[in-house]
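Entry 14. Ran structure prediction on the chain below.
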Amino acid sequence: MTRSPIIARSLSSLHRARTELCKRNSKLALVPTMGALHDGHVSLVRLAKRRAQKVAVSIFVNPTQFAAHEDLGSYPRTWKEDLARLKAEGVDLIWNPDVKTMYPDGFATRVAPEGPALAGLEDKFRPHFFGGVATVVAKLFTQVRPDMALFGEKDFQQLKVVTRMARDLDLGVKVIGGAIIRERDGLAMSSRNVYLSPAQRSTAPVLFRTLKDTAKRMRDGDNFKAALSDGADLIRQAGFALDYLEARHAETLAPIASLNDGPVRLLVAAKIGTTRLIDNIKA
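Output, structure tokens:
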């Protein structure tokens, strides 16, 4: 019978649990989440289990990364289903703090990331976002004190921001990226996919198809600007409001002009109806 994970909701219970789990010098991996778990999260848990003897998952819907007009109130919360998934995967610890625990009265400190956080991608459209992410992740790292932490590559800019922050602040956490997990039609798994209507859901894979087609054109020697422009037109014609379709250096996120400029990542963000989707692939 699968053992139930320890559930910690206070810092004192978290620290007791961590001490018990790691008393034999076991490596601890953390998978930070906002809940509403799907197969992409499960893939990170399984990767964590291959890398470490003990696995913790945090579930916290972080208010500081949502702007006033965004979906904090309606963000899906599926605690019972999440707990069942994590129990089935043999997770050792769930860190499930409330807002008061993470941001107590008088909280006055923020992390202000630069570098990849100012690449002109997500930060251009959600200028509040990476400050909120960096602050909460820094707190999670210092609270849980994992040896490593796993983040999905779907949020590619976030992965680069967190990696740089952990390195710059000497947090002692190795950040590991996990591959994007997709539906059969190519749509990147996301907790926000539940917002899509049936018609929007059938249209959504256009993003992935366009990324693949654009990358192929670039590999075949086509003009970068033309390939990106044509891809952007296809996305708009499908009914999306496009925020960006960009080719960037895969490590620095700096703009590039050809495949010779380094490892290249194609990134897209677009809204269909009220749901904003992001995706990326290697070029």
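Residues 209 and 270 are 14 Å apart (CA to CA). Will compare against last week's run tomorrow.
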